[in-house]
Amino acid sequence: xxxxxxxxxxxxxxxxxxxxxxxxxxxxxxxxxxxxxxxxxxxxxxxxxxxxxxxxxxxxxxxxxxxxxxxxxxxxxxxxxxxxxxxxxxxxxxxxxxxxxxxxxxxxxxxxxxxxxxxxxxxxxxxxxxxxxxxxxxxxxxxxxxxxxxxxxxxxxxxxxxxxxxxxxxxxxxxxxxxxxxxxxxxxxxxxxxxxxxxxxxxxxxxxxxxxxxxxxxxxxxxxxxxxxxxxxxxxxxxxxxxxxxxxxxxxxxxxxxxxxxxxxxxxxxxxxxxxxxxxxxxxxxxxxxxxxxxxxxxxxxxxxxxxxxxxxxxxxxxxxxxxxxxxxxxxxxxxxxxxxxxxxxxxxxxxxxxxxxxxxxxxxxxxxxxxxxxxxxxxxxxxxxxxxxxxxxxxxxxx
Length: 400
Ligand code: ADP
Ligand code: MG
What we know:
The protein contains 11 helices and 13 strands. With about 400 residues, it is of the alpha+beta class. The chain has a domain at about 10-215 and about 390-400: 2-Layer Sandwich (Ribosomal Protein S5, domain 2), CATH 3.30.230.10. The radius of gyration is 21 Å and the shape is globular. The termini are far apart. The model has no long low-confidence stretch (mean pLDDT about 95). Magnesium ion binds near residues 140 and 189.
């Protein structure tokens, strides 16, 4: 097969050098510094964030780097190796829907910080971006971009970047994504990009916003977590996402609770719902939240291989009860399991994007081969593979 199956993580300093070269060739002179923020994968806890549930993402070694220089006017100039589309504009004109391309994620961060009074008018930025996070594959290249830039702005202004400072930056990044880029996502991606610790996943309680690091040591279990980017074509799924959220709201109203997280006795609740579709949707959410707690518990005990069956149960629940999987994701999961994975599931919103597989070391090559082979046989796009290692959060690489 000619497709290169592995997406190389590329060292962060190599990425940073490339961002600096792009900065120099575009804007002249040198950047004030370079910052990095990671993509992420959600180990388990899918479609439960908006039900006040638990999620368990970790930061990847695939990162976005930004070379940034402060300006003393209201201008934002940005360029990226990912696209030919540059953006140069006035920060006071940033508003929902403007700018409308990738610059929305960057301009939105400054907009949110100006909005909250964190930074004042009369301050702008030049920035150049280079990243190893696959874009649009459900690994959160958007939050990586926002968080790398938000940390840069905070550092350049001398604002605190300790955990309290980061909580404020997370808010700004979420507002940028929701209000300026117009993408109605929760805060998981930004939270993990800003607060992750190497060797740990982050257990995030979406009801209280509390976080707790959970140790994840695949290596000592002689296993690896593979991300399978299905390269599936983009589908119009906005309606589906809204429909699932609406279905949960209707169920909550019927059950008289604010969120499904507030339910203790799942069996009693499922028996009292009238519509069969409601039962399925609610059952996914309730069983998934329970699985997240169990996975966190097993990982804390160092029982890594034992989480496999829970990952697979999560997939079946998303496929059959929540109905957000796709032929490409099902193919990747089935093939990984057939070739010896301990467990596998779709990850992210679904309908395409990426799957993950927890694989014993001696089955990694077999899983890669079999996933690619079955995709080819079914005339699906050939997937690519990333090695998922719990990595560090957003950080500064250099400052002049
Ligand atoms: P995901 O976050 O899962 O990768 P999204 O659709 O949420 O997918 O975000 C992808 C968008 O983020 C891209 O279409 C682009 O607008 C922006 N983006 C992400 N990374 C980069 C980058 N390196 N350069 C320019 N734009 C980027
Ligand atoms: Mg995103």
